[in-house]
Amino acid sequence: MRNTTLRDPADPASPRGNRRRRGSRVRSRLLIGVFLSGIAVLGAGAPTVISAGTDYKDAQRLAEETDVAERALALAHTLADERDTLTAAVAAAAVSGSRQPLDAALTPENRARADRKITELRAALPTGARDALTDLTVLREAAEAGDATPLDINAGYTVMIAALEDLTRDTARATPPDAADPTADALSDLIRAVDSSAATRGLLLAALVEEGEQAELARLIHTARAREEAALADFTALAGPSARDAYAETVAGDEIAAAEEYLAVLAAGSGFTATDRALDRVEIHDTLAARTDAQRTVLADLSAEHTARLAKARDSELMALQIKSGVVLVAFTLVLAVSVQTARSLTRPLAAVRLGSSRVAADPTTQEPVKYTGRNDEFAEVVAAVNALHSRALDLHQRALEASRDSGGLRAERDRLLAEQQELGAQLHQLHGAVHGMFADHAERILILVSEQLSVLEGLEEHETDPDQLAVLFSLDHLAARVRRHGENLLLLAGAEPAVMPTEPMPLIDVLRAAVSEIERYEVVETTPPPAVRILGVAARDLSHLLAELLDNATAFSPSGARVRLTGWCPGAGQVLTLHVEDEGPGLSEQRIAELNARLGDSTTPPAGADLGPGIGMGLYTVARLAARHGLGCWLHARPGGGTVAEVIVPAALVESTPTGYAPVDGTGATPAVAGTQAIPTVAPADPSTAPAAPADPVAPVPAQRDASAVAPAPPTHPSHQEHTRAPDSAAPGAASWTPEKTENGLPVRTRGVTPVGSLPASETPDLTPSRGTDAEELRRRLGGFQRGARAGHRDAAAEEDGPA
Questions:
Q1: How many CA atoms lie within 13 A of 800 on its CB side?
Q2: Which residues are listed as membrane-spanning (predicted)?
Q3: What is the pLDDT of residues 553-579, one digit of tens each?
Q4: Tell me: the pLDDT tens digits for 256-307?
Q5: Alpha-carbon radius of gyration of the chain
Q6: SS percent in the chain: helix, strand, coil, step 5
């Protein structure tokens, strides 16, 4: 039979095994408890100490950088003095043909002073500033050899000075909140003002002795003066009252007033007269130098104050680190002492109970009962153990409550941050709406002003009798038309619909003319006879703007002498219309084309200007917006033989047949051309009955021979300044008879009919060279239809919009 008798707890067990087991367990628990208590305190205090240490390191690093920036600012002032002296010396040496001014400017003392500061500071400078200083020796040698102009010296030194002054700007922007001060934000503006003041002084002295480059020097002087005034205005707006008062008190006096008078006279014009050069250059140098030195004194004082604030902030961070470390250390010691004392308070009663229980269990009949400070019964050990566990449970419960309170505070803080995030999101959305509304309002104002400007130009053109002045007015008219296109694009980017929406269909040829006429280098564009179709009025203007953006981009990246081809084909009315813009530029890589096509397909994400520069990509973004508005397809691909092709697909829903009587232009007939210095060459497709896969080779353009003295004072040097001529009010012989003088839907059709010279008999070849005695009325009749048709079209479109209302 199985023995089911349970062991009596009072029976004695093996003493050695019992003692070893119990002693090992209690000792281990107590040591673990003390260890965990210390670890918990250190874990709770470590983030605070680490954060304080990080703040102290940041404050120390910022203080050291500020000290380096202050020394770099002093070096920048030294280099600025050397720049201004050397700029005037190079100009004087160029006029006199002597090296004496250069030797006086680049004395060994001046060199040693700047070189000594560079040597002391080079190791502490960042890489950008250190690399910029390597050009100092090259500039000095170029000046001594006579290979550098005053403009070269000024530009080279300015790069080094800007790199050094950027250090002070960076430290001022990195000022922590506890050391923030309005003056710190204004330091960068005062630095710009002081540098511009010194640059103005050097350029003025060079201009007063320099024989040539007066226009460029005057422009640089005017720019430097304007930068100084703008920087001082920003400084006054941002700096605190004490800094403004210090500047007003320091930069004052008779010399300062005399310097201001000199600047008002010499820095305001576009050149220098004999009276200006007769002024005392030594007096000008002294007064301007005194003004610049006074400004530098204010800058040095404010920089020193900023450095002192950062040093004080560093000391505060060090004090906070020491206090937090001390608090954590005291807490750790206190917890360790309390833990040890608690362990001893547990082991003593337990030992007494254990020894008494063992004694009673060993000899329960003869031994005295266990005397217990509590209850003297058989449950004393259990009660003591329960009390000890209860004590530990209370301790753990207290920690749990503290943890719960901490987590509750974190949840409340999270809820507060979420609410603040939602509020900021709502404010941001409201601000976005306000900004878009502001852009739309300004775009509409720009369009109104441009319309008024075109009206004024029209009146001037009607009454102008001088052919030269009339040609200038036509150029201004063309520029105003380009401004109007950009204004309508700005309205598109702002998310607003155009105020006037054409309703009548527009012939494709007029759409292409309008696109070409609204670009800068319209004279390099070649076209082929377009299909005999019309574009619906709701999409005609936007299609014209889209093609203008693509043509602008193509002409901008085409080499000199290259042509840009605008071609199109369509099987017929109600079919898809395909348009090509081809350039002969260097072309794009497959990866770049893929990136640009992705941007053309995304009409919701604006271009990232931060990494490409201001305004980069806005043309493609405008194309994407215009294409998305009407469901047009637009993408780029490489052109065989070099260059890029932009392909535009117009849906069949936007294409309709032309009215009866439309006669497409063939390759030998007249081709309407954009107003310019020459007609736009055209290319006829190989088989007019089929849609070509690509445009044929272009016919050589027929240049519009022009007497420069009869139209403009001098030939322009940039394509954007080409003469802007007007087309005749009526089509030239050979042009399609249906071509209207002005559009009915508002598109700026600035065209005229041109018959290529090669297509006429020798006896009928017109003389394209106007004489000096050309009558103004004849010139106005020949060229006036270009702008007049565009303006009338816009007025008719506005009348269509107002009519139903």
A1: 19
A2: 30-50
A3: 999 888 888 899 999 988 766 689 999
A4: 888 888 787 777 766 666 676 767 777 887 888 888 888 888 888 888 887 8
A5: 43
A6: 65, 5, 30
Q: If phi over 0 gives left and psi between -120 and 50 gives alpha, with beta otherwise, what is residue 613?
A: left
If 0-12 CB within 10 Å is exposed, 13-18 middle and 19+ buried, where does residue 628 land?
middle
Tell me the DSSP string of 695-738: PPPPPPP-B----HHHH-SS--SSGGG-----B-SSPPTTS-TT
Contacts 24+ apart (CB under 8 A), 222-228: 222/267, 222/268, 222/270, 224/196, 224/199, 224/200, 224/267, 225/196, 225/200, 225/263, 225/267, 225/268, 227/192, 227/193, 227/196, 228/192, 228/193, 228/196, 228/197, 228/200
CA distance 422 to 235: 35
Domain ranges of the chain: 49-324, 467-606+615-686+704-802
Q: Where are the beta strands (DSSP E) in 493-576?
A: 506-507, 525-527, 533-535, 564-569
For residues 759 and 671, give the distance between their C-alpha atoms in angstroms, rounded to a whole number: 11
Helix (H) or strand (E) holding 644: strand 644-650
Dihedral of CA atoms 384, 387, 389, 390 in degrees, nearest 10, equals 170
Distance of CA 371 to the CA centre of its chain: 87
CATH top class, domain 467-606+615-686+704-802: alpha beta
pLDDT in tens, 410-436: 888 888 899 989 988 888 878 777 777
Rounded Cα distance between 746 and 498, Å, is: 12
Q: Shortest CA distance to 795 belongs to which of 449, 455, 443?
A: 455
CB 750 within 8 A of CB 513: yes
Judge contact between 784 and 748, C-beta under 8 A. Answer: no
